[in-house]
Every structure is written in structure tokens, then in C-alpha cells.
Design a protein that fits this description.
Layout: H1 2-6, H2 15-29, H3 34-56, H4 61-94, H5 96-101, H6 107-136, H7 147-168, H8 172-188, H9 201-206, H10 211-223, H11 230-252
Helix pairs in contact: 2-6, 3-4, 3-6, 4-6, 4-7, 4-8, 4-10, 6-7, 6-11, 7-8, 7-10, 7-11, 10-11
Length: 258
């Protein structure tokens, strides 16, 4: 609480202090509904895991690997991209951004703090999806230590996409609709749920513009192996997408919009 109160002083706090304070405030906002958010992030991926198990016996291991990592992307979509679009649109409509504008904080700290809190809320669902998939599908993971870098980076890239939708949509209902549509498009564009040789050429090419493509690729390499030079391209693009959307959201955000 001391950090939260310190935002009201006339002397701006260091960026890290601002980030932590916003992060704590956002977690406090969700203390009553985090169970619902967690459940939503779990239901679809776990159902899809059961479906994968039913089809795995007649599918090749490569296809199953794409289904698995695409399923993890699906979990991150529900709890990061879609929810972030809804959150920022809600903050605009109820005047929360006006409140934050009265505090001596940076817009980048606000955006990063909200994105980080949503990723933390989504993490239990992602871990549960991975563990349940390993048990139910009897998959031997070859987990690479860099997975601890990949998961937050994928989550932040998708959350940044959702935040941009939230600050550009004209209403909360519009943001929710756009978030759902974009989530579905990112799942089917590019080799996210299916290997590239199973996709039409045009769809495969469009995937190069999707953060989900790079996120799924990085997850496959750090969960199932092997690690290839493509991994560093995935990390570079995901980092660029995250930083780019952080800047775009801060640039487009009108703190006193009515």
C-alpha cells in the first residue's frame, strides 16, 4: 500500500516502482474474479486436449505437436489478448484512464503493469494445460530452460495485441468482438495449429505477420525440441511485437477521453 500511495506524491517514482505499483493495483482489481478468469482460460484448452487425445492415434507426431502448442497459444489468447482488449476498453469507458492521468506515472508503466498482471493471472491455466497434456497424451516433454523466457514473451506479445485493440475500439462491446475475431484469426493463420505443409500457401504466408506463429514455434522448440536457429528469430520478432505494441498503446491512449 505504501507504493500505491507514493504515486500520489508530487515527485515521480522510478519506472520500476511505478510498474510494481500498477501491477499490484491491477491484481487487487481482480481479487474477486480471478477464479472466473482462470476457469475461462482452462476450459477450452482442456477440452481441446481431450479432442487431441481422441485423434492422436490416427495422426503423425508432428501434427500432434502442432496441436499441443497451438492449444497453449489458445489458453494465452483467452486470458491475455481477449481479456486485455476488454480491460483497456473498459478503462476508457469508466474513466479509469482519467484517474491514472492525475498520477505522476508514465503511460508505459501503466501499460506494462496491466499486461504483466494479466500474464500472471493466465500462468496457472497455461501450466495446468501443459501438465494435463503431458499426462493425458503421454507426451515426453524435452523442456529447455529458455521456456521461462518464452512463456512471458508470448503472453506479453498477445496481451499487447489485445491492449491495442482495446485503445482503438470505439466501445467495450466493439473491443470484445474484435478481440474474439482476432484471436480466431491468429489461430488459423499460419502454422499455429497445423504444420505448414497442411496449410494453403496464402494462409502460410499470412502467418509471418502473426505473433501466434512465432509464439507457437518458440513453444514447440522449448517444450518438445529440438532447438534450431529459428528460435532466435522467434524471440527477436516476439520482442519487437511486444515493444511495438507497448509504444503504440501508450501513443494512442487518450487519458482524458470521454
Amino acid at each position: 500500500m505504501h507504493k500505491i500511495k507514493s504515486l500520489r506524491t508530487n515527485h515521480p517514482q522510478p519506472f520500476l516502482n511505478q510498474l510494481v505499483s500498477i501491477f499490484i493495483m491491477e491484481l487487487m482489481n481482480w481479487r474477486w474474479s480471478w477464479r472466473f478468469t482462470l476457469t475461462i482460460g482452462l476450459i477450452a484448452p482442456l477440452i481441446f486436449t481431450v479432442m487431441i487425445g481422441a485423434m492422436a492415434q490416427t495422426s503423425d507426431p508432428q501434427t500432434v505437436a502442432y496441436w499441443l502448442t497451438g492449444n497453449i497459444i489458445l489458453s494465452l489468447m483467452f486470458t491475455n489478448l481477449s481479456r486485455m482488449a476488454n480491460r483497456f476498453a473498459f478503462m476508457r469507458e469508466v474513466g479509469s484512464l482519467d484517474y491514472f492521468a492525475t498520477l505522476p506515472i508514465r503511460r508505459s508503466a501503466l501499460v506494462a503493469g496491466v499486461l504483466t498482471s494479466f500474464f500472471l493471472i493466465s500462468l496457472p491455466a497455461v501450466i495446468a494445460t501443459i501438465l494435463f497434456s503431458a499426462y493425458y497424451l503421454d507426451i515426453q516433454f524435452q523442456i529447455h530452460p529458455l521456456l521461462i523466457v518464452v512463456l512471458p514473451l508470448v503472453g506479453m506479445a498477445l496481451a499487447g495485441t489485445g491492449a491495442f485493440i482495446g485503445v482503438t475500439a470505439r466501445s467495450q462491446d466493439e473491443a470484445i468482438t474484435y478481440g474474439q475475431v482476432v484471436s480466431l484469426l491468429l489461430l488459423i493463420i499460419g502454422p499455429v495449429m497445423m504444420p505448414p505443409d497442411r496449410l494453403p500457401r496464402a494462409v502460410e504466408l499470412l502467418g509471418w505477420f502473426s505473433p501466434a506463429t512465432y509464439g507457437a514455434s518458440a513453444l514447440r522448440q522449448t517444450l518438445l525440441g529440438p532447438m534450431t536457429p529459428r528460435f532466435w528469430l522467434d524471440i527477436f520478432v516476439l520482442t519487437g511485437i511486444t515493444v511495438g505494441f507497448l509504444w503504440l498503446v501508450g501513443h494512442r491512449m487518450d487519458w482524458r477521453q470521454r
